[in-house]
Amino acid sequence: MKVTPFILALIIFFQLQSQEKQTNIIFMIGDGTGLSQITAGMYANGNKTNLEQFSVIGLIKTHSSDNLVTDSAASGTSMASGVKTKNGVIGFDLNGTEVSSILEDCEKMGYNSGLIATSSIVHATPASFYANVSSRRLYEEIALQFVESEIDYFIGGGREHFNKRTDNRNLITENNSFKFVDNLSEFESSQNERVGYFTSDLEPKSILEGREPKLANGIQSMLAKLDTKEKSFFLMVEGAQIDWGGHANIENYLLSEFKDFDEAIGIAIQYTKANPNTLLIVTADHETGGTALNSGDIKTFTPQLNFTTKNHTASMVPIFAMGKGAENFAGIYDNTLIYNKLKSILAQ
Ligand code: MG
Ligand code: ZN
Fold first, then answer.
1. 341 CA to middle of ligand 2, Å?
2. The domain containing residue 160 runs over which residues?
3. Which ligand is nearest to the CA of 289?
4. Is 38 a domain residue?
5. Which of 24, 29, 52, 119 is the most buried (most CB within 10 A)?
6. pLDDT in tens, 145-164
7. Given pLDDT bands bounded at 50, 70 and 90, which one contains residue 11?
8. pTM of structure
9. Where does the pLDDT of residue 2 fall: very low under 50, low under 70, confident under 90, or very high at 90 and above?
10. Cα–Cα distance between 280 and 228 in angstroms, integer?
11. Which residues fall inside 5 Å of ion ligand 1, going by CB?
12. Nearest ligand, CA of residue 75?
């Protein structure tokens, strides 16, 4: 082919276009995942974790506005929207004003968005990215706000909050924008603009009970889908049940859920390294269980976890960052600043 000035101009135009593509954000939250969870998970996995591949690390203050010990609603709201709020509240600041989340801000900029959770999709952590409710328990209202949101793709539990409701509405059959699918291959192959995969009727099983799909397979399918689109994307991925293992004070539950989350981190790292226009952050909303490693077996790297509570604690939690703008995430700072840092990266 002869390269005419016109074709040359076209090539330059498309190169500039691709350079201008805005930053993809992968925001991973290990619910209830403090340093002891990470340490025990690492030892239990033969003394290694994918988190060792990060070079930018920080520590996050997690308190809510009314308690040193936060819950997932208040902490989720702080990370997603940059404001402190009371425990149990999602998407409102202290004046009762609705706040916009980083996912919604990205949507306004023309991004695609996705959510993956190993809980129901209306649970506090994912809900913090799209809902505004006075109580995290208002699952039916959260489901309504979910279908009215701009979210393009999701993988998570909680089908019955959409189709077995006290108002007798069926948000699945009355919704004509989402295509609902039953497995990951349908999720990937669907050409619909919005695709959702309900993995369970209420809360998904634990890994110990045989939960499918694995979080790593879910994020793989989600990234494959988002990668084929012209638009940049925002993706939130939650390992929800690390927290539930902590509440239950059951070491095997916690460790198996951490492993599932760690494998998903491995997939996100591969994507981020192959796509330098991507920012990957991994953090937690709070620590759960007041866990400590008081003993263990050095020969087999078997940790022995002890718990001091069945609730959350106020310990700082680590944050790990990689890719575009990662350097902004080093240091010790408040969870609300995660939102501010993401906003300033998007503004560049
Ligand atoms: Mg959660
Ligand atoms: Zn919890």
1. 25
2. 54-235+247-321
3. 2
4. no
5. 29
6. 999 999 999 999 999 999 99
7. low
8. 0.94
9. low
10. 19
11. 31, 72, 125, 240
12. 1
Tell me, what CATH number does 118's domain have? 3.40.720.10
Distance 276 CA to ligand 2 centre (A): 34
Cα 336 to ligand 2 centre (Å): 19
Asked if the model's pLDDT at residue 252 lies above 60, the reply is yes
Report the separation in Å between the CA atom of 245 and the middle of ligand 2, taken as the mean of its atom positions.
9
Cα–Cα distance measured from residue 156 to residue 186, given in angstroms and rounded to the nearest whole number? 15
Q: Give me the catalytic one of 18, 55, 65, 72.
A: 72
Residue 7 lies in a domain: no
| Nearest residue to 29 (alpha-carbon basis) of 133, 83, 102, 137 | 102
Higher pLDDT, 13 or 140: 140
> Do the Cβ atoms of 340 and 80 come closer than 8 Å?
no
Annotated catalytic residue 134: no
pLDDT average, residue stretch 22-34: 98
Which ligand does the CA of 73 lie closest to? 1
Domain membership of residue 299 (yes or no) is yes
Q: Is the pLDDT of residue 98 over 80?
A: yes
Gap from CA of 20 to ligand 1 centroid (Å)? 34
Q: Which residues, 6 or more positions from 19, have their beta carbon under 8 angstroms from its beta carbon?
A: none
Q: Give the model's pLDDT for residue 14.
A: 57
pLDDT in tens, 65-86: 999 999 999 999 999 999 999 9
Mean pLDDT for all residues in the chain: 95
Residue 272, pLDDT above cutoff 80 = yes
What is the tens place of the pLDDT at every residue in 183-199? 999 999 999 999 999 99
Structural domain contains residue 336: no
Strands 233-239 and 312-313, how do they pair?
A: unpaired
Give the span between the Cα atoms of 227 and 162, in whole angstroms. 29
Q: Is 59 exposed, middle or buried (0-12, 13-18, 19+ CB in 10 A)?
A: middle
68-to-62, 64, 113, 269, 287 alpha-carbon distances in Å: 8, 6, 32, 32, 12
| Domains held by the chain: number | 1
Q: Greater confidence, 62 or 15?
A: 62
Residue of 109, 108, 127 whose CA lies nearest to 119 = 127
What is the 112 CA–ligand 2 centroid distance (Å)?
29
Ligand nearest to the CA of 254: 2
